[in-house]
Prior knowledge:
- By secondary structure, the protein is α+β, with helices and mostly antiparallel strands.
- Helices cover 69% and strands 10% of the residues.
- The mean pLDDT is 89.
Amino acid sequence: MNNPFFHKLRYRLQSDFQLSVLCLICAAGTAGVIPFAIYRALQQQWVTCAIDITLSAALSSFAIFAWRTGKTARACQALALINTLLAIVYLHTLGMTGVFWLYPLFVSNFFLVERKHAWASVLTINLYMLFRPGFFPSPDQRFALIATSLLTCLLTHIFAQRTEQQRRQLENIASRDALTGIANRLNFNDELIRAHQSFEREQEGCGLLIIDIDHFKRFNDTWGHEAGDEVLIRLARFIEGSVRKTDRFFRYGGEEFVLLAQPCTSASLATIAQKLCAQVADNISFNSQPIQISIGSALLRPDETPEQWFARADAALYRAKNGGRNQAINED
Length: 332
């Protein structure tokens, strides 16, 4: 499909694991609940029908909220809470018939929120069933339900934990530069698009700085490639320790690095670039040779694509290199 919406949809779901889990749960939950809502309406079971419709509406609303705002964690927390409350309402209204809905609810909560919050939901629902008079027809059913629900949640906890660990390990391997340890170009490409999407939503200024080491070939030619690697490592560590907590720093490739500065204005972006250029020249050296950098920067403009934004910063870097190096030029 060449439709831009589907390209954006696929990218968001591939790059945001939590959003993809939320959307999958919401889609599957809505598809599973709507037929029951129709059936109960035909049977004139209006209370349970209203509960089904409320759940379907909540599922759709939370998915849309996460998609439009990017606040996926908040949407997941709210959905897990609604799941718990509606589960108790189901149990109160349907009795033992509502028990069958508990298992998909328990499993989904372990993938939506932190495991301690998922366990709080499990214990709340189990305590409700235990202390509601006459809920269980027999002691055997009480024991079987409580035992199987806890065992299901324990296995889900283990699986969710292992899945999260493996996902983070793979993401770390794929997104970190092996030499310097900072985020790599692949990570930058994703973050550039996220910064652009954040700007479209919130209109908060975002700056892009492309940083290039001046005369980098001299270090390799004079002292060897290991010296060049050491220069890259020293520069990366210094800049990473100098930028703001809200800024994101990447190795783009070779001797080039990129910094996403947010929030910022055109004036503050120019200040950041000039200050960084001066600090590197004053504080970093190799074998008594100063390490100097050139910087090209650009503030994201409305109706500008990520590619156009990057091209403007790159053009500013080109002017800085041709204008004598060891300087910062702001395209704006």
